[in-house]
């Protein structure tokens, strides 16, 4: 699996539709200070479902929408789509090419799509569990992140190893099953109460 392209429109400094294509080997993005290099990494984090504005260097989620310049009006929406080659089926989906899209409008509406079909944020998270690519993955190492990993709490560091070992999806499923069990236990207690009142 590898990243084939990123399409951005209305996201941060990318006012026009811009497509970045990646090929085999190493790709470097170069440009003067403030020209938008880090915005490319932010776009990838965002499309993978990042919900924390601070992680995207903003104060609220609408900050990702092109805010306008002296000569250009602000835009009403931001859209990012990443396309991954999935010929090796590392992503648990039948398609050989997977495009994940996220859009947000100033009105606050937002949508996620996988290969053009609307989906939930949860579906995007699940698609990338244990691949190292998801929003908590280690495929994007930001400035200062190595320090944070080394000086972080053991539990936080453990999360990285869990992701690399491929057990995150099982842990999530276990947590969901445990929650369901707990809910059912509460229901049983309620049923027992009602039964004893009826007796
Ligand atoms: P450096 O080399 O200094 O780290 P960089 O090339 O990584 O810089 P970025 O941090 O990606 O640059 O881009 C910063 C630019 O993006 C700034 O000019 C900022 O005004 C612009 N920008 C960020 N958010 C928005 C937005 N919502 N609308 C318009 N422009 C934005």
TrEMBL record:
Compartments where located: Cytoplasm
Chain coiled-coil ranges: 167-199
Binding residues annotated for ATP, in chain numbering: 32-39
Family: Belongs to the SMC family.
Domain remark in the UniProt entry: Contains large globular domains required for ATP hydrolysis at each terminus and a third globular domain forming a flexible hinge near the middle of the molecule. These domains are separated by coiled-coil structures.
Function summary: Required for chromosome condensation and partitioning.
Subunit text: Homodimer.
Full protein name: Chromosome partition protein Smc
Organism annotation: Diplocloster modestus
Gene behind this protein: smc
Span of the entire protein shown here: 1 to 199 of 1186
């Amino acid at each position: 699996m590898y990243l084939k392209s990123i399409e951005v429109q209305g996201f941060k400094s990318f006012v026009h539709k811009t497509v970045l294509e990646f090929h085999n080997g190493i790709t470097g993005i170069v440009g003067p200070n403030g020209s938008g290099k880090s915005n490319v990494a932010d776009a990838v984090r965002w499309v993978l479902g990042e919900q924390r504005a601070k992680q995207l260097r903003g104060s609220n989620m609408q900050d990702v929408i092109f805010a306008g310049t002296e000569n250009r009006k602000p835009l009403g929406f931001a859209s990012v789509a990443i396309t991954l080659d999935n010929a090796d089926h590392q992503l648990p989906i039948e398609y050989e090419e997977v495009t994940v899209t996220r859009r947000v409008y100033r009105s606050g509406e937002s949508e996620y799509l996988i290969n053009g079909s609307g989906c939930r944020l949860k579906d995007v998270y699940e698609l990338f569990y244990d691949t190292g690519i998801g929003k908590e993955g280690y495929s994007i190492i930001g400035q200062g992140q190595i320090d944070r990993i080394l000086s972080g709490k053991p539990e936080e560091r453990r999360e990285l190893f869990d992701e690399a070992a491929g057990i995150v999806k099982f842990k999530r499923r276990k947590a969901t099953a445990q929650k369901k069990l707990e809910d059912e236990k509460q229901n049983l207690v309620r049923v027992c109460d009602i039964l004893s009142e009826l007796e």
